[in-house]
Write a structure and sequence with these properties.
Blueprint lengths: L4 E4 L9 H8 L6 E4 L5 H11 L4 E6 L1 H11 L7 E6 L5 H5 L6 H10 L1 E11 L4 E4 L2 E5 H8 L2 H7 L3 H9 L6 E7 L3 E13 L21 E7 L3 H13 L9 E5 L1 E7 L3 E4 L2 E5 L2 E14 L1
Helix pairs in contact: 2-3, 6-8, 7-8, 8-9
């Protein structure tokens, strides 16, 4: 492996013993070692890595840190490659890519793993244009996230999403939404949620798009229509089990481009960060990024 440009987020969820983690990462004999201190730093350091003509960038952090690096590197070049040491609380994209959980095992992947080309997604809204590799969601998921307190996560573990969904039911409202898929299919519906996925997991392992493949040139679109409280609670349980795509309570599609319009404007987040409201356009950029895997 070429000497990597390491971008380390010491506040990522599982970074834990920061000095120990830092020393382990330095075993890679990096070209440079940069530490983030505030939001936006990872994006800044990624631009510096690009200017330094680094061929390999190692992201030591969570999904948010990875998202910043991907945005800092655009436009991507074929010679650049990203490796990941997942240190976050969720590590959802690492799950999709089949990366191990321990630092030492991931260092071995970085040294001896292979490179694969993965898709990147561009989202444009009124206020911003961003890139992502994992998942963007609008509507219901944001409300559920607000209800999932640390206490709920500790007490309920993998079922925290069900508990959060139950707490969010009283605050739910449907969005009158127009969806256009690849300029070939259009429909309107009252929706609680729109999920546009390149990766499979959100919220620390929730399989929101269990069949997604970041190498297939397609986006997975999961739409949750307006439902009664009992149906919504049942659907939340099905999502935890990854059984919701076969449910009559969801609408599932695959596409390369999705345009979402809604009334009132549905807020979207990308890897947990708000990116604005609908109208929003999602476009797959096939095989745009080199990524190190097992």
């Amino acid at each position: 492996m070429d000497k990597p440009y390491i971008i380390f987020n010491p506040t990522a969820g599982s970074a834990g013993r920061r000095d120990d983690t830092r020393q382990r990462l330095k075993k890679l004999e990096p070209l440079a070692f940069r530490t983030t201190r505030r939001r936006g730093d990872a994006e800044k350091w990624a631009r510096h890595a690009r200017a330094a003509k680094a061929r390999v960038i190692v992201v030591a952090g969570g999904d948010g840190t990875l998202n910043e690096v991907v945005n800092g590197l655009h436009p991507l070049t074929p010679t650049m490659c990203i490796g990941l040491v997942p240190l976050g609380t969720g590590n959802d994209f690492a799950r999709t890519m089949g990366l191990p959980s321990s630092i030492e095992e991931n260092l071995e992947v970085l040294r001896f793993g292979k490179r694969t080309r993965i898709d990147v997604v561009r989202v444009k809204s009124k206020k911003t244009s961003r890139y992502f590799v994992n998942v963007s969601a609008g509507g219901f998921s944001g409300i559920v996230g607000e209800k999932m307190t640390r206490q709920i996560k500790r007490t309920w573990g993998p079922l925290a999403y069900v508990r959060g969904a139950a707490a969010a039911l009283l605050d739910l409202h449907a969005y009158k939404t127009d969806i256009a898929l690849d300029d070939r299919e259009r429909f309107s519906a009252e929706l609680y949620n729109v999920v546009v996925a390149n990766g499979r997991f959100v919220a620390g392992g929730l399989p929101i798009a269990p069949t997604a493949d970041p190498t297939d040139g397609k986006l997975e679109v999961v739409l949750i229509p307006k439902l009664g409280a009992a149906e919504m609670a049942l659907l939340a349980a099905e999502i935890v089990l990854g059984k919701h795509l076969s449910s009559n309570a969801t609408i599932f599609r695959q596409a390369r481009k999705i345009v979402v319009r809604s009334r009132s404007g549905m807020y979207f987040n990308v890897d947990g960060e708000l990116v604005g409201t609908a109208p929003a356009t999602f476009q797959i950029i096939p095989r745009a990024l080199n990524f190190i895997v097992k």
